[in-house]
Amino acid sequence: MDHFQLKNGILHAEDVPLPSIAQDVGTPVYVYSRATLERHAKVFRDALSGLKDPHIAFAVKSNPNLAVLKVLARMGYGADVVSGGELTRALRAGMKPEDIVFSGVGKTHAELLQGLEAGIGQFNIESEEEGYELAAISRRQGNTAACALRVNPDVDARTHEKISTGKRENKFGVPLDQAKEIYARLAGEVGIEMRGVAVHIGSQLGDLEPLETAFGKVGELIAELRAAGCKVTHADLGGGLGVPYKAGERLPSPAQYGAMVARVTKGWDVRLVFEPGRVIAGNAGVLLTRVVRVKRGITHPFVVVDAAMNDLARPAMYGAWHDFEAVEPGSQRMTAHIVGPICETGDTFATDRNCDALKAGDLAVFRTAGAYGATMASSYNSRGFVAEVLVDGDRHAVVADRIPAAEIMDAERVPEWLA
Ligand SMILES: *Cc1c(COP(=O)(O)O)cnc(C)c1O
Predict the structure, then answer these.
(1) Roughly what angle, to the nearest 10 degrees, separates helices 128-140 and 109-118?
(2) Which atom of ligand 1 is nearest to the CA of 198?
(3) 132 shares its domain with 244
(4) Are 388 and 396 in contact (CB under 8 A)?
(5) Active-site residue numbers?
(6) Residues 354-375 pLDDT 10s
């Protein structure tokens, strides 16, 4: 359920008609709904209500906007961060340091230090080498960092290969068959406290079975670790739950996910940690765009919109589908290719798409753009960075300014010896 609905024939975000946002802020612009974010956060939390005191850390990489993080912080969410920049954002949004988990395969010395100094709740260590490095930095401070060891369970998440992270050949985590020895060695290090195991097998999962298989392996590992005398008080089950990108698409619900987790983790006697991203933010945002012109094609026309692959990369990057709808649909339909203005054929949002009939000047939206949308934007083709707006009932606010190309250019220099 989301709060982007037609009212009197005009698509609204909650109670705000999208044409008024286009008029205020221009296009393209991401529009997020606070009520939808809160609803998703509540549904996910409720789905885990059968578990004892779960900790939910929103995956900041899916939507790092400060206002979005603030909404989730107020819902009691912590943050899963994967860089120093994301850590800074989570803290600035008011997330408590102890509610922050730091994931990522390439945390630098500076980032480990930043996490230690901030006093974050948990480091998800992705290699034995990282564990020793963190321990050394932490010891020097007289600190003890709480850590989970990320394991690679060698499970095929059956999602797009670029967002699959739990196969043995992927760069993430330590191989399951070496995890016990690595955990035990790291547990002997002063400066870190090994307290658990972490797993995350990929994103946009349409099937619970790979998750269940991975969690089952984590459960076996926890038992083996305990049998070997290691302490395990936490298990971080990552994120990955998929969302429907097409109207009518069926995916496992948070409730089904929660029930599966409760069943599989029964008797683990740990505090469970979750890192949902897409399932919270995905359907809480749309990318609002204006049709530049409709160009005659060989078979079908090209609807050229003012949004492009630099604003929303998922179609170009993963061949992803986003529903595309007119903001003021009439009764007519058309079949068209939906493209942006960028000089690459990859700048195609949809081919042979049956959609509302559109003409130059009309507004339209790409749905399900609240996760992995604005955050993946670039300034390719010297286009600026897209603006972001948050709606709350009948009010809206710009929560990220559009950054014009000229401002980006201000950071560039021509050396004197070229003048
Ligand atoms: C990307 C990521 C997530 C979030 O994944 P979603 O599919 O958006 O839920 C969680 N944990 C880690 C370690 C990640 O890399």
Answers:
(1) 50
(2) 13
(3) yes
(4) no
(5) 343
(6) 999 999 999 999 999 999 999 9
